[in-house]
């Protein structure tokens, strides 16, 4: 949060990396993007493996997890529909 606060205050990414001892400034911009999108759970994920499709996020309420799963299934269905439509046209 401190890195994002400094970034929003106008401090450059490289200066923040040196000041806070981070590995790269790209990470700070990624964190800021997650905050803008409201994906606060992504900030608490451990380094290394990033959970795809919100798997492993146990601290979310059950209703929220189910809503996200439904959205994922809907998106997958849209991809399948587009594929089938494209196949019919060929």
From TrEMBL:
Domain of life: Bacteria
SUPFAM superfamilies hit by this protein: Homeodomain-like (SSF46689)
InterPro entries reported for this sequence: Homeodomain-like_sf
Protein name as catalogued: Transposase
Organism: Companilactobacillus tucceti DSM 20183
């Amino acid at each position: 949060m401190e890195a994002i606060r400094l970034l929003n205050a106008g401090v450059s990414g490289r200066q923040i990396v040196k000041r806070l001892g981070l590995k790269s400034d790209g990470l700070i911009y990624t964190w800021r993007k997650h905050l803008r999108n409201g994906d606060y759970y992504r900030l608490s994920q451990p380094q290394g493996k990033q959970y795809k499709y919100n798997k492993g996020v146990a601290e979310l309420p059950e209703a929220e997890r189910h809503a996200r799963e439904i959205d994922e299934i809907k998106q997958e269905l849209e991809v399948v529909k587009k594929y089938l439509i494209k196949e019919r046209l060929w």
